[in-house]
Amino acid sequence: MQTWFHDHPIISYLLILAFTIYIFNAVFRMGRLPLLKEVIVHIVMAIGCLVLLVLQLDKLPIIQCMAVAVVMMLMLRGRQMYDKWRGKKGGDSAANQAEHR
């Protein structure tokens, strides 16, 4: 897999950029920024991803590590949505179970 990413640097860069943008939006974003600041942030991220691309091409598993981080974040998001759905479905049953313990 590592050699395939090395042979396709554009796809590697796009994956790194997509993972970086997702991680930034999911973890570090506090609120909406003005449009110019938003563009500057994404340009700086795109430049920073070039450094990660160099490390990826130098045989470090950057894409694989970022993919694991994104999968874990998606699992957390799914668990939060499940708990929210379960809380609405159960109504007061969760509160009643807590009282009986």
TrEMBL record:
TM region(s), chain numbering: 12-28, 35-55, 61-78
Alphabetized UniProt keyword annotations: Membrane, Transmembrane, Transmembrane helix
InterPro entries tied to this protein: YlaH
The protein's name: YlaH-like family protein
Annotated source species: Cohnella lubricantis
Lineage per the UniProt record: Bacteria, Bacillati, Bacillota, Bacilli, Bacillales
